[in-house]
Specification:
Length: 245
């Protein structure tokens, strides 16, 4: 069983050490909630805090803009983009279509190396589920959440990368990043969520291992559609609370 945290395969188009450093820093700040929706992303302040020039920070911000994580507001600057209901649904629908296709292809193009990697990420999720039960807690703390998200992203991107379609991989990673940021900040990651994700990953892996492309596609689509329903429900609840306040 892996003892170190697994990371997702990188399909990011961001290049250059300083640009990557700035990109990772801003993305993590958005993911953790340090930069919530509507907050200003200051190029000058980020450059100062990171101890680098504004050029790589500006390039990182432009990449985040292309990915739909930030937006430019006239006479105000760059802000973290709020996500709308229709956009969230579209993201999940696209993910379901592309990732279920990738799961089917992975089953057809069975490779032991891919299976071994997928098993590692399943093992990480199983370990996290066991830790929650042993500790007698229901929700993921910050450390376990970070491991859970990394294993989840790595599992899905390993399947997508196995297809060998670079454009598809870049598109899926962008869509997963946006939806992941929404879920990490709003959806409660409790034992139910962890167990459900672990079980779906197991079923998808077994379908790929047994070369059952149709079942792999079906289980991947179910997995993503359940996440979509849950995320939309939480977004609707937030909207109701905001409108009634």
């Amino acid at each position: 069983m892996p003892s170190r945290q697994q990371k997702a395969p990188s399909s990011s188009p961001v290049s250059g050490t300083l640009v990557q450093k700035a990109y990772d820093h801003i993305q993590e700040a958005i993911l953790s909630g340090q930069l919530p929706a509507g907050s200003v992303v200051s190029e000058a302040l980020l450059a100062k805090n990171l101890g680098i020039s504004r050029t790589p920070v500006g390039e990182a911000i432009r990449q985040l803009w292309r990915e739909g994580l930030v937006q430019q507001v006239p006479r105000y600057g760059t802000i973290v983009k709020p996500i709308e209901r229709r956009e969230l649904i579209e993201l999940y629908e696209m993910r379901a279509a592309l990732e279920s296709y990738a799961a089917g292809k992975a089953a057809e193009r069975f490779e032991e190396q891919t299976i071994d990697r997928l098993q590692e990420f399943c093992d990480v999720m199983h370990t996290i589920a066991e830790e929650l039960e042993s500790a007698g807690v229901n929700e993921l703390d910050e450390s376990r959440l970070s491991r859970f998200i990394a294993a989840d992203m790595a599992f899905h991107m390993t399947i997508v990368d196995s297809v060998g379609n670079r454009r598809m991989a870049e598109s899926v990673q962008t869509m997963r990043t946006v939806s992941r940021i929404f879920r990490a900040r709003r959806v409660k990651h409790d034992q139910k969520v962890v167990h459900r994700a672990r079980n779906y990953h197991r079923e998808i892996l077994e379908a790929i291992r047994s070369r059952d492309g149709e079942r792999a596609r079906q289980k991947m689509a179910e997995h993503i559609n359940i996440s979509m329903a849950e995320s939309v429900k939480h977004l609707d609840q937030e909207s109701e609370r905001y409108s009634s306040s």
